[in-house]
Amino acid sequence: VTGESSIDTMARHDLVFHAPGGFGLRWDRRPSGLAGGFTDDSIRAALTTRQALLQKNPHIVLIAEIRYRDAAAGYLPDDHPWWLRRDGRRVAGWAEGGFYQLDIANPAFRDHVAAQARAAVETGVVDGVMLDWWDENDERVALAQAVREAIGPHALILVNTNDRRAPRSAPYVNGLFMECTRTRSPADWRRIADTLAWAEAHLREPRINCLETWYHRSRRDLPLMRATTTLVLTHSDGYCLFSDPNDLPTPDHRHDWYPFWDNGLAAR
């Protein structure tokens, strides 16, 4: 929103997930992949930010993404055993380059991810953690269980499954971040609706399911924005976002704020 402060813009949203640094937290060790907590001064500053957000939006939920699938080249020392390697080389995170995959099959690494999740929650700055690139292989289910044990029964876990269900993870996670890349056919929308309804019925309470779709032609695809919003309202008690596609050269999840979202739901 042009001319608006970052706090005011963030407070428009009822759920925000970000790297810990997005809330003002700074890891207490470099490289940050080896850190076990956050600096005291950054915790104090981030708690001030949290209070400012809650004053503007008492319903806001703050979630810190904890890296486990891939990371920037400097996240760990080059020779660290937690990098995933193939033929002695680090495996690229994705096609754009600059990021490398982490070895989630390593139990020590999973324990470290869980410890970082606990450290984030224990600051009091965030309400839970987000784990990206989620599917239902054994290593990820083991990670979900480890994170749940580390953060306790009340903090939140959000996982990015795109438009897929996650029955094996359901006992541990509170929400699916449904970053939907396919929204061009009736079959796509039926799959999305069915997954959202499933998540509302089967995940751990309290539930924080989120649906994100991307524009097809421009941010002015208003029927698509309204369809996304209405689907969330009719199939869940969750959250929605209508954003730019990920293949743009700008950061992911950028979006306009639509007056449609300012409408209240109270009976008139």
Enumerate the spans where pLDDT stays under 50 for 5 or more consecutive residues.
Answer: none
Oligomer state of the chains in this structure: single chain
Characterize the main sheet: 7 strands, parallel
CATH architecture assignment name:
Alpha-Beta Barrel
> What is the CA-CA span between the terminal residues?
29 Å
Structural class: alpha/beta
Number of strands: 11
Q: Count every helix, treating DSSP H or I runs of 4 or more residues as helices.
A: 6
Overall pLDDT level: 96
Please indicate the percent range of residues in DSSP E strands (runs of 2 or more). Answer: 15-25%
The CATH topology = TIM Barrel
Q: Any overview of this molecule?
A:
- With 268 residues, the protein is α/β, with parallel strands linked by helices.
- It has 6 helices and 11 strands.
- It has one domain: Glycosidases (TIM Barrel, Alpha-Beta Barrel), CATH 3.20.20.80.
- The protein has a 7-stranded parallel beta sheet.
Quick gist of this model?
By secondary structure, the protein is of the alpha/beta class.
Topology, pairings included?
Layout lengths: L5 H6 L3 E4 L21 H17 L4 E5 L4 E3 L12 E2 L2 E2 L8 E3 L5 H16 L5 E4 L6 H14 L4 E5 L14 E5 L6 H17 L7 E5 L7 H14 L3 E5 L25
Parallel strand pairs: 1-2, 2-7, 7-8, 8-9, 9-10, 10-11
Antiparallel strand pairs: 3-6, 4-5
Which features would summarize this protein structure in a list?
single chain; alpha/beta; TIM Barrel; 7-stranded parallel sheet; two-stranded antiparallel ribbon; 11 strands
